Each structure stands twice: as C-alpha cells, then as structure tokens.
Amino acid sequence: MSLNKCLVSSPATVANLGCGFDIMGLAIQEPLDRIGVKLNSNREIRISEITGPEGHKLSFSPRENLMIHVLQCFTKKLGTKQGLDITLEKHVPLSSGMGSSAASSGGVLVAANALFDNPFNNDDLVTLAMEGEKFISGAWHADNVAPCIMGGLVVIPNYEPLSLVSCPFPEDLIVVVVHPHFELPTKEARAALPKEIPLGLAVKQWGHVAAYVSSFFLQDKNGLARYMEDFVIEPARAALIPGFYDVKNAALENGAIGCSIAGGGPSVFAFTFDQDQAETIASQMALAFKKHQIECDRFYSPINPNGCHLID
Ligand code: HSE
Question: Which of 128, 172, 180, 143 is nearest to 271 (CA)?
C-alpha cells in the first residue's frame, strides 16, 4: 500500500431516467459528498467523523450505517482484517431520489480501493456497492451506484451476471433536478409499485426503453424527447409526491424535452438542451412545488462524466 489515507468526491445521481426503471442512471455535478478512508491499527471498521448539512441524520453504528457494511464486504472479499476509519461530509440529501446511499457506498468503496492499490474493477465495486442499497432498502439495484462510481450515463442490461454499459450522451444535455424538502425512503417508493403488469403495457414500455437507449447511442435528441415517457413506474409513484403533475407540466411548458421522477423520488428531474432555459425550468418547477406548500433545492448541470474520483 503506497498511501495510508484517500479522500474522494462522490456525486449525486438520477436513476430510471423516465422509462428505464432499475436499468439506467446518470451522475450529476452537484451535490457531492466527500468521503475519506484511512488505515487504523485496531482491526475495526468505524466512522470517525460525519459532517455536512445532511450529516446529523446519519448514525455511527455498524448496524445502521451502510458505509461500514460495504467496507466489511470489501475487506472480506479482499481477505484482509485491516482496520479502517471513515470520514463523511454529507451533502447529498437522504431519501431524496438523488442517490444519497449510492454516493456514500460508492465513495467509500472507491476510496478504499485506491488505498489498497485498486484490487477491484468497476464490476466488483458496483456489486459491492449494491450491498449498501440492499442494506438500506432491501432492493438490489445498480442504477445509482453504477453511474456514481463510473460517471456518465450507465445502462444495466443484466443483473445476473451483472452487465454495465457506459452509454454515450449529448454533451449539451442539461439535467435539472428539483429536490422537495421531504423524505421518501426507497423502500416506501418500491412498495407502491405493482407486482405484475399487463403484457400490452409491458410491450409499450419496452418499446420505449429500446428506442430511448438507442436515441442516446445515436445522439438523437428528438428520440430522447419522444421515448423518455414511463408508463409503469411514474403513474404508480406520482401520488407519493404532492403536486407531481403540476411540477412536470411546469417543466414541459417551460421548454423541457421530458420530465419524470428522479429514482424513487421525491425529487423530480427534467432534461433540456438549452442552458439558458435550465434556470427557468428549475425555478418554475420549484414554484409549482411551492404552490403545494413545499420548499425545494434546485440543481442543474450537464451529466458528470467522472463519477467518484480521488481528491487527495
Ligand atoms: N431504480 C430505483 C427505484 C432507484 O426506482 O426504486 C432508487 O433511487
């Protein structure tokens, strides 16, 4: 080991992206967590410090904090009993649909991997990070952890075995995210989903998914606008987000090419190709939430191509 501590920056992410439930996600530029991992001499994996605006909501307990859990999985896979101290500066809001748990697990794994001279590849790290998602929500999904770790836009065509495809995207695509100030745990958002869907609806949805993914590969902006719509998950979850359709209409009326729930919500995201329109779209979406007595944070940026990366 050439280092005894590593610090990484770990981004928020948007999963599903409309019709791609559990199989697509992208990284955004802000907010970012900062996560440090340092060797200790007592064979224990523990959290030494949690700071940042969201930090007070998190526990230091190994039974409750997913970062300890994923590092235990990491050291077990590596076959070491090395003790590690974790520091976390938490900015990505919890239970927001912006991949807060993914930012924690992805960041801590990328930092630990660098500390041990990179024994694991992206497939290994994403698989380990999914242990964190399962720990928090009971669900085994990679559509936040993969783009968090790898950056850019990632498609997951298969889970067993895991298959990760970095997908091209138009560089001028701006992702607008509006985060309403209430929490919606992924577990609850998943409990609202239908267990089965009629075949006709499934055909409609997978037609869109196929055309949506190929539109990214072809850089076909009209295709992105035309095929983003989700017929299955969004209608089932919309009622969990007061004013969702008003917010979506505000985005579309102000020039967004599409709008849907970010991950499990309650954040809502929109796409635009017009940098000047992004601020208007974000503020009009926030205003629509405000009409339902809900305050919001707003973010907009191009897709973050880097994902988790070392800053020290
Ligand atoms: N695909 C997951 C879901 C993302 O929609 O439940 C959670 O952020």
Answer: 172
Residue 103 CA to ligand 1 center (angstroms) comes to: 14
Q: What pLDDT is stored for residue 92 in this prediction?
A: 98
Q: Do domains 5-167+305-311 and 174-302 have the same CATH topology?
A: no
Q: CA distances (Å), 34 to each of 86, 233, 308, in order?
A: 11, 32, 10
Selection from 107, 256, 231 nearest residue 177 by Cα: 256
**The domain defined by 5-167+305-311 carries CATH number 3.40.50.150:** no
Q: Which of 87, 127, 186, 272 is catalytic?
A: 186
pTM assigned to the model: 0.97
Assign a CATH topology to domain 174-302.
Answer: Alpha-Beta Plaits (3.30.70)
Q: Of 54, 89, 131, 133, which residue is the catalytic one? A: 133
Does the active-site annotation cover 51? no
Q: How far does residue 25's CA lie from ligand 1's centre (Å)?
A: 9
Determine if ligand 1 sits within 6 Å of the CB of residue 101. Answer: no
SS3 (DSSP) at 165: strand
Q: What ranges do the domains of the chain cover? A: 5-167+305-311, 174-302
- pLDDT tens digit sequence for 259-290: 999 999 999 999 999 999 999 999 999 999 99
